[in-house]
Amino acid sequence: MSDRSLPETVEHLVVGAGFAGLCTAVKLDEDGERDFLVVEKGADVGGTWRDNTYPGAACDVPSQLYSFSFAPNPDWTRSYSFQPEIQAYIQRVARESGTLDRFVFDTTVEDACWDEGQQRWVVTTSAGTVRARNLVVGSGGLSAPKLPDIPGIEDFGGEVFHSARWRHDVDLTGKRVAVIGTGASAIQIVPEIQKVAGHLDVYQRTPPWVIPRSDRPYTRLERLGLRHLPALRRLYRTGVYWARETYVPAFTVAPRIAWPARRLAEANIARGIKDPGLRDKVTPDYELGCKRVLISNAYYPALAAENVELVTDRIAAVTPTGIVTADGTERPVDVLVVATGFHTTDLPIAAQVTGREGRSLAEVWAERGMTAYKGTTVPGFPNLFLIVGPNTGLGHSSMVFVIESQVRYIREAIRTMREHRYAAVEPHQDATDAWNQRLQRRMARTVWSTGGCSSWYLDEHGRNTTLWPRSTFNLRAVLAEFDVAAYDVRAPRPAPTSGSTSGSTSGSTADEFLEEMPA
Ligand code: N01
After folding, report:
1. What is the CATH T-level fold of the domain 153-208+246-338, as seen in this structure?
2. What's the pTM value of the predicted model, to 2 decimals?
3. Cα separation of the two ends of the chain
């Protein structure tokens, strides 16, 4: 639908066509809410799985769980899928959902402003302006590549690109390649480049904990079973889900109980690397879990290969022909891969969304930190719904589970608005503050706060605004109902004297929700 002109108004405008936007589209359609548009800057569905095509790209959550509960894939070929299989799955779900006629591709949202008079969002896109009752932002927390601020990098004479914008036209065979970063993306890229590059320098600032990857292709019998026995698929998915939930206490309450995983990671190092000096360099000095725990069997053997050097000296500058480290050594480079992560606590979309008081989400968050009510709605921004919003990320399980939980909450909000003919809903500041205070108190006990590392989970003030500090079933439970009492609600056409009819707010609402949930 990318060449069609946009309608002037829609009921729901969804930004982004990754797992979040697609899930929203499918579920809105299912609810009979057919008047929606999904606006996507890229040319296809898939989001991060469309964009991250680097060699070795794969998911570190088993596909049986990293997929929609309502669209099982009977044909996964292995336990942890590679990017092409995941992208094909998303494309298939989109095709079969019958909603693609309401997706607009190659269209960028430039800004979105709340019009208080009309009680609508006015969304300016590269293809025109649309007015929408509800704005659902599913543009992702890991979608804006973060480039390293290294002197001289703009003047590098060879090819340079980010891991999420892989240049497949650049042949690495026999070249001198440098990879900056040792996060989840880099540890998948490095073993692939090592196989073809003449020489590979890996620039490590902080070593990650890496445990073995129990990945394998399914046998013929397993594939037959998973294809023809839905109960087996469900059992498998449930098993993976609960196995993952057992990690939660180690992340959120008692990091010390993660010692078996730490032993596994140490054994992984010992198995992959013989040189004691290199072993020391790759062994982290912080608690396992503080940064994302990575999984790979191939990373350490690749670092130990003859054509690879792990560089731990600080990068001082990039020259037109190489990289200079703080000790003055210059290493020549033909191709520079920056695997330096994403803007996670300073989401670019926040600067483009302007609320009821004329302030952007970025301005509000600059003051208060990146916060939302239940990770989904924000005071001052009526009818704005964030998917994978503040503090909804996970260190242990499937984000698709989180997305489905949030979409359920949004559907409930929309159903409530329809039922009561509300023009707008907006969370109370009190309820939002209470929610976040409670959440941050819990956060203080987690390995992300106490583990002795810095990570992309934390903002510039060291505050964790990205992760959910409890189990995923707890998150699903708090999002199960739209708790209208925590919201200011507005009548369809407010009379001049009664612009707003408040629900009974209580700062304790969020507290009660959190309190009631099982640990
Ligand atoms: O990014 P990262 P990523 N100079 O931010 C280093 C998901 N994901 O793309 O640790 C030198 O984790 C930085 O060093 P340090 C997953 O949620 C999932 O790898 O900050 N180095 C770090 O080593 C993941 O967590 C999958 O000291 C610099 C690296 O770059 C998230 O995406 C696969 C630097 C960045 O690591 C992000 O992963 C891929 C600088 N100036 C991604 N700046 C799977 O499912 C940064 N670094 C498998």
Report:
1. FAD/NAD(P)-binding domain (3.50.50)
2. 0.94
3. 46
